[in-house]
Amino acid sequence: MAEPPKTGETLFAFTARSATGARQKGEVAALDLKDATQKLRTQGLYPIDLAPQTVKSPVVKAARARRRLTQRDKADFIARLAKLTESQITLDRALGIIAEGGQGPLPPAATALRQHIREGGSFVAGLQDYLGINDAATLALVRGAEVSGALPQALASASAILQQRLALVRRVGVGLVYPSLLMVIAILSIGLIMIAVIPQFRPLVDGRMDMVPFLGRMIFGISAALTALWPFLVFGLVAMVIALWVLHRRGQAVPLAMRLVARAPLVSGVILRNQVMIVLHSLGALLDRGVTLSEALEVVTRASQGGRLSKALAGVSRSVVNGEALSQSLARTGLVDSSAVEMVRIGEETGDLSGMVTRAANEMREAADRDLERFLALFQPALIILVGLIVGVSLYALFSAIVSVNAIAF
User: Fold this and answer.
1) Under a CB-based contact definition with an 8 Å cutoff, are residues 92 and 114 in contact?
2) Quick check: 104 and 147 in contact, CB under 8 A?
3) In what order do the strands lie in the sheet with 10-18?
């Protein structure tokens, strides 16, 4: 991969042969045509075709890459940076290694971020501008590391937080795939029966609908409505699929689905417990990096993205600022297990608040995992039973209408 052009340089596209006669294509940054030729000769290449090309701005490339970055891409980027910097590799070189990684959206974003830092920009601003990373906890950890110099540890903590959120989304998503597919197939099958089969029996009961049982009348009424509206329903379905595809390309489909699922009565409690665990883990990581308690609470409140948890954290933050102990504030919310609250209280008394908050998060993780596994184990068969009931009632209504039609005809 060619280095980004420096001030006054132009990017030249070349076709050249090596000393062995192998043909090679690429790009080289140079002041002019003569300088480009000399650079290629220095590399042992003999140019066949050499011409300046329109240089795509790294900012433009990064903007396009940012639109394609998913939450997993961002988490993988932070994880790779953490591993490279933990191996005593400088941030500049680590970004260079990722930039040389070949295809995909990460290399151009890493290239633009590297150039941004070389020009004096901050790492935090670069993560926001070129990778679209807006997670408050990640940015706070990196911002603190820019001051303290403990960037590898901060990146490792940020990576762990992002991976936990991805794990929650993945586990819930995988657990709901089969029931969701079953529900979709059942709805399509019932819709096909309503639109294509039942209308064929309608002429037999016209004028005698009062003799058809209630379920039969209901099934004929639903069939008539769906038959009249099916073009609009198909158009709406296609529009929804396109919208989901666009949101998926922008990396917004999964977060939107998680927000919708989190509002469901049976799922909200399970997801809320997992979110509280992630909040405690983020809080412990921030405190361990030297962030003050009030600032750390403000960061995790912004990262919670609204809802009941965000309101509860905002209340905890206000109480702590007013002098109340963190353990008391957390206990009053009712969202944190009593054992976790006790650990936080011990941390306040011993002066090891960050360590005990992290231990509380680990303990809540075990409880949250058990709750999630129990929910998924019960939810899948429950949804299958519900689908079976819907199909059974529909078929019973259909057959009762058919029997009524036969009785009227004969």
Assistant:
1) yes
2) no
3) 23-30, 10-18, 45-52
Counting every residue written for the chain, the total comes to 410
Q: What is the pLDDT of residues 1-40, one digit of tens each?
A: 455 556 567 777 788 877 777 778 778 887 777 788 888 8
Report helix, strand or coil for 290.
coil
CATH number at 167-410: 1.20.81.30
The pLDDT value recorded for residue 57 is 46
The candidate with the shortest Cα–Cα distance to 183, out of 21, 388, 406, is: 388
* Residue reference for tokens 């997801």: 271
Distance CA 159, CA 156 (A): 5
Backbone angles phi, psi at 54, to 5 degrees: -70, 120
- DSSP per-residue codes, 191-250: HHIIIIIGGGGHHHHTT-GGGS-HHHHHHHHHHHHHHHHHHHHHHHHHHHHHHHHHHHHT
DSSP states along 173-192: HHHHHHHHHHHHHHHHHHHH
Residue 13's nearest CA partner among 21, 153, 24 is 24
Instruction: Measure Cα distances from 332 to 326, 329, 335, 381 in Å.
Output: 10, 5, 8, 36
Residue 391 in tokens? 């199909």
Residue 313 burial (CB count, 10 A): 25
Q: Which two tokens stand for residue 372?
A: 């999630």
Which amino acid is residue 275, in one-letter code?
Q
Give 20-50 as a DSSP string. Answer: T--EEEEEEEESSHHHHHHHHHHTTEEEEEE
Q: Specify burial of residue 6 (Cβ count, 10 A radius: 0-12, 13-18, 19+).
A: exposed
How many Cα atoms within 13 Å fall on the side-chain side of residue 67?
Answer: 7
Q: Position 134: which residue type?
A: N
Residue 81 has pLDDT above 60, yes or no: yes
Q: Taking a C-beta distance cutoff of 8 angstroms, is the pair 381, 181 a contact? A: no
219 neighbors 190 (Cβ within 8 angstroms) = no
d(CA 198, CA 216): 10
